[in-house]
C-alpha cells in the first residue's frame, strides 16, 4: 500500500491505455490486482469476517480474485454478487471462486465490507434496484471458507498499516485502532447518520442504498479502486456512496480520489502497485524539497518579498507574517500600515520603493480593494519586472490577457468565486479548468479549495490531498499568498513555488487542528517548514 503523495494521477481512459500498453491479458492484470487487494485487505481486516460485494465488470472480477486468494490464505470471506459477470476476465475470476455467491440484495452485513461493485467503468447513478438478476448459488450457513486465520493479533497488524496518517485536523478520525474500536467509533459518525432509513424490502432498495446498509453495519469499509457511485475523472458523486474508511486505488490514483466532492467518500487512499507502468502530467502534491540556509546565507539570499498594502491592511499584514514564517529573509510591506512585528519592514508605497531590484516576489491583492487607488497600485506593480503573486482583489481587477501580457513569472491564487470571475464559469472538472486557465493567463494558477489544483501553462498539474476543512476562515488565503511569495522569492521555479506554498499552508493547518485563526496559521508555517 503506497501513499499517494507525489504519485501520478490517471483518468479512466489513461489507466486503460496504460493497462493495454503492458500487452498483458486483462485476466493476468486482474490476478495481480486481486492478489494485491487480498494482501491489503487481510492486513487491515485481521481475523474478522469479510464480505466482498462484486459488480458485473472487471471491478467485480478483482473482487472474485481477492475472495479466492483470501480464502486460500485462510480468511473468513463471503461473496455477494450484483448480477452475473459480463466481461470474460470477470467470468473467469468468478469461475475461480469455489465458494457460495449470495445475492447482493439479500446479503447480510459483515464486520469488513469490501466494495468491488463498480470502479472506473461506472457511467451512471446507482439507482437501479439491488435485485438486478443474478444466478447465485445459495449461501451456506455462515458461508465460512477456509480455516481460522493464522495471523497475529488484530492491533499489531492494524496499527502499522495506517499509523500516523489519521486526519485528526479535518475532523475525520484516525484509523490506527482495532476494527472493533473502529466499528464502535467510526460508523455512527460517518455512514449511519447520513442514511438512517431503509425501505421495507431489501430487494427493492436501489443499489446504493443496499451498499449504505452494508457499510453502516460494518466495522471497516474498503473500496476497490473507487467507492461505487463516484465518477472516476471529474470528482462527481453520481450516487453518493458511504464514506469509506480506506480506498485501494489500483495502479494509480484517479482524479476522484482527490477532487471534491468525490474525495470525501474515499477515506484514506492507498495505491496498490500492480506493476503497470504509469506516467502522467498530473501528480498528487508532494512534500517540497526546500533548501535550508547555508553558512553563507544572508537575508537577500533567503529571498526578499514585497507586499503592497491596500484598503484593508490586516490582509497584507497576514501575507507579510506568512512570508516571514515560511522562510523569507526580508519582507517589506509597502503602504500606510503600522504595528508589530519589528522584523517587518513597513515603508510608504512609492514607485521608487517598488523599483528595488532585490525584490524576488511581489505580492499584490490581499486587502487591496477595488477603488481607483487600488487600480493604480496594481498598475504600478505591473510596471515592474518582479515575479508576481496575484491574489484577492488583484484577480478581480485583471483579465487573463492582461496577466499574460505582463510577461514575467506570475502565480494566481483564486478561490472559486475569483476563478469564475476571472476565467468564466464552466461545468468542466477542476483539473481541466485550472489547466485551461493557466494557459490563458500564461501563469501558474492555484485554484484553491478543499481540493486545491495547481496548473502550469505547459499542462503540468498537481492536486493537493484534502486539506483541513478548518481552513475555511477569514485570512487564510492571505496567508497562502504570503507563503507562496516566500517560495518564489527563494528562487524556486514558479510551479514549484506554488506547490511548496500550498503544501506548507496545508501542513500548518493540519498541525493546528480545529478553530484556528489566520494569524496562528501564519505562525504555524514555521513548524511546517521545520518538518521538512
Ligand atoms: N487499473 C488497472 O490496472 C486494472 C483495473 N482493473 C479493474 O477494472 C475496473 C474497471 O472495470 P470495467 O471497465 O469493467 O468497469 P466496472 O467499474 O467494473 O463497471 C462496468 C460495469 O458496470 C456496469 N455499470 C456501469 N454503471 C452502472 C450502473 N449505474 N448500474 C448498473 N451497472 C452499471 C456496466 O454495464 P454497462 O454500462 O455496460 O451496461 C459494466 O458492466 C477497474 O476499476 C479495476 O477495478 C483490473 O481488473 C485489472 C487492472
Ligand atoms: K468499487
UniProtKB/TrEMBL annotation:
Top-level taxon of the source organism: Bacteria
Ranges where the YjeF C-terminal domain occurs: 282-532
Cofactor: how bound: Binds 1 potassium ion per subunit.
Protein name from the UniProt record: Bifunctional NAD(P)H-hydrate repair enzyme
Residues at which (6S)-NADPHX binds: 58-62, 119-125, 225, 315, 367, 415, 478
Cofactor: K(+); Mg(2+)
Family under the similarity heading: Belongs to the NnrD/CARKD family. Belongs to the NnrE/AIBP family.
Catalytic activity: (6R)-NADPHX = (6S)-NADPHX; (6S)-NADHX + ADP = AMP + phosphate + NADH + H(+); (6S)-NADPHX + ADP = AMP + phosphate + NADPH + H(+); (6R)-NADHX = (6S)-NADHX
UniProt source species: Sphingomonas ginsenosidivorax
A GO BP annotation: nicotinamide nucleotide metabolic process
Subunit comment: Homotetramer.
Amino-acid positions noted as binding AMP in the UniProt annotation, renumbered to this chain: 448-452, 477
Matches recorded under HAMAP family: NADHX_dehydratase, NADHX_epimerase
Composition skew (Low complexity), residue ranges: 131-143
Domain YjeF N-terminal: start-end pairs: 10-282
Annotated function: Catalyzes the dehydration of the S-form of NAD(P)HX at the expense of ADP, which is converted to AMP. Together with NAD(P)HX epimerase, which catalyzes the epimerization of the S- and R-forms, the enzyme allows the repair of both epimers of NAD(P)HX, a damaged form of NAD(P)H that is a result of enzymatic or heat-dependent hydration.
NCBIfam families: yjeF_cterm (TIGR00196)
Regions annotated as coiled coil: none
InterPro entries: Carbohydrate_kinase_pred_CS (IPR017953), CARKD (IPR000631), Nnr (IPR030677), Ribokinase-like (IPR029056), YjeF_N_dom (IPR004443), YjeF_N_dom_sf (IPR036652)
